[in-house]
Design brief:
Length: 306
């Protein structure tokens, strides 16, 4: 029995969302219709693709095998469409002058998403008015194999999966606190003084990447005010919550907060751009990735000098 691309498209949506309701929003079909389409595909293939339960749809071994094939078809269709569009535009405008168009979803940790990507992406849409950029700011690792995003920014380089990874730039972090807090707090001139201060930082069991466990490097044991969000931590510092580690590029957004212990403690971390390996020949995504990386490097350099 011949399987059509539309059947595979619906199958991929359910496989990635793991629920009919989640997939229905992506493919714009109601859940009941989508369920019938999946059941029809299973009947055509003579196999069960999903184990259905009240918790959702989990792929069977047959479903996982089909997903590999379906993603290959998806990649081929995307590459073919991109190639046709690029050739048409290059014929009329030249390859480097072609404006980027379409929708790109970018995943990023919330520090980068809050303090770097707004100005970088706003500038990109000024240059490319036909480009729609979606920034998904979540404090976790993105699953590109499920197409949660077209590309993601990470604080470490993944070592598994069908991915391509490139380092964008390094960035600096220091302890910081508000002037109001420091005016009445105990002396703070060396790392050992931190034990007498209220500490602001991450919720320990919600740190999704070892590179974010900043306070462990300083020997801090107790965190009085904690959040899984960098922007919440910075706002806690702005309100006099205590002392915490802050990205240098975020300090311009909080003028009442300043660095402390600069001569005794500093951290360097890196941002990485992570893409699905199958997208390496996707012209629009590749050009966007290059422009995005350039913009982030320039913005980090500018903000760290303020």
């Amino acid at each position: 029995m011949q399987t059509h691309w539309d059947d595979l498209r619906l199958f991929l949506a359910v496989a990635r969302a793991e629920t009919l309701s989640g997939a229905s929003a992506t493919v714009r079909l109601d859940a009941a219709t989508l369920g019938r389409r999946i059941a029809r595909l299973e009947a055509q293939l003579g196999v069960s693709l999903f184990l259905k339960s009240p918790q959702g749809y989990a792929m069977t071994d047959a479903g996982q095998r089909l997903m590999i094939k379906a993603e290959a078809v998806e990649d081929a269709i995307r590459a073919a469409a991109e190639g046709v569009s690029a050739r048409r535009a290059a014929t009329t405008e030249g390859p480097q002058s072609v404006a980027l168009t379409g929708q790109i979803r970018l995943g990023a940790p919330d520090g980068c998403a809050n303090y770097l990507l707004p100005q970088v992406c706003a500038a990109l849409t000024d240059q490319h008015p036909g480009l729609d950029i979606q920034i998904v700011a979540l404090p976790r690792v993105f699953n590109l194999s499920r197409r949660e995003a077209d590309m993601a920014i990470g604080v470490s380089a993944p070592t598994s999966g069908r991915l391509t990874v490139q380092r964008i730039t390094d960035y600096q972090l220091h302890f910081a606190a508000s002037e109001g807090y420091l005016a009445t707090a105990p002396e703070l001139s060396q790392i050992s003084d931190l034990r007498r201060h209220r500490i602001v930082g991450y919720i320990a069991d919600m740190i999704f990447d070892r590179e974010l466990d900043y306070l462990a490097d300083a020997g801090v044991q107790r965190i009085a005010l904690a959040s899984n969000s960098v922007s919440v931590q910075l706002n806690l510092l702005r309100q006099g919550g205590g002392v915490g580690v802050v990205h240098d590029f975020a300090l311009s957004a909080a003028p009442e907060v300043r660095r402390v212990l600069q001569n005794t403690f500093s951290l360097k971390r890196s941002f990485y751009l992570i893409r699905h390996a199958a997208d390496r020949n996707h012209n629009t995504l590749t050009r966007f990735a290059d422009l995005l990386s350039q913009g982030i490097r320039a913005e980090v350099a500018r903000l760290e000098q303020i």
